[in-house]
Amino acid sequence: MQIFPAIDLKDGRCVRLYQGDFAQETVVNPDPIAQATAFSKQGATYLHIVDLDGALEGKPVNLDVIRAMKKVAKLPVQVGGGIRTMRQITFYLEEAGIDRVIIGSAALENPDLVRDAVKLYGAKIAVGIDAKDGFVATSGWLDVSATDYLTFAREVEKSGVQTIIFTDIAKDGTLEGPNLEQLQALQQAVSIDIIASGGVSDKQDLEQLSALDLYGAICGKALYNGNISMAEITEVESLAD
């Protein structure tokens, strides 16, 4: 199982949120470039970067920082947050050297963008499904749609997308463990790669996610506060292989 250390960017700093609430923000490192370098030196094999400012504004905001992070980390990087147009997707993939982009809100609001992007870039396109009480949330998690996450996942699969990043908002930043029930239901609903996000608190949580035969998992708060180490992440990645 691929494990992704998470770096969430807001106001040029690395932060963690509680249940996606921008009012409950903790700065974990004021220097995101240093954080990317540290994860790389500690053995990370892939980074997950979210432009939180971009998610709110509906356009990438931290482009220069993300490009610099990719350069210093010398690792594969996937990026999400505010990606709404083909021009933005092309910039990330062709100019910034990003390995995979995550389309979030726009995937629900503009499914044609997803289909067109997949035709051009194939597996470099992922869709982020963020759910609140089982329904898809958009616009930096501020709005909740009437679309069930499983229904949406099936539609995403039909569009040709090969990877879904699934977040249960109620679990995000809580260290209460991932929503295994929803993830298992998602795993049964689609046959494409699933990356679990939200709630990971320790190595055991990662092992449980690996037991579900998921493609990947994102680790944020637990990594920053020392509940889990990069060495333990490497162990779980090796076991899954």
UniProtKB/TrEMBL annotation:
The keyword NAD does not apply. One of its GO terms (molecular function) is 1-(5-phosphoribosyl)-5-[(5-phosphoribosylamino)methylideneamino]imidazole-4-carboxamide isomerase activity. GO terms for biological process: L-histidine biosynthetic process; L-tryptophan biosynthetic process. Its main location: cytoplasm. The keyword Coiled coil does not apply. Pathway: Amino-acid biosynthesis; L-histidine biosynthesis; L-histidine from 5-phospho-alpha-D-ribose 1-diphosphate: step 4/9. Its EC number is 5.3.1.16. It catalyses: 1-(5-phospho-beta-D-ribosyl)-5-[(5-phospho-beta-D-ribosylamino)methylideneamino]imidazole-4-carboxamide = 5-[(5-phospho-1-deoxy-D-ribulos-1-ylimino)methylamino]-1-(5-phospho-beta-D-ribosyl)imidazole-4-carboxamide. It is found in: Cytoplasm. One of its GO terms (cellular component) is cytoplasm. The active site is at 8 (proton acceptor), 130 (proton donor). Keywords: Amino-acid biosynthesis, Cytoplasm, Histidine biosynthesis, Isomerase. Belongs to the HisA/HisF family. This is 1-(5-phosphoribosyl)-5-[(5-phosphoribosylamino)methylideneamino] imidazole-4-carboxamide isomerase.
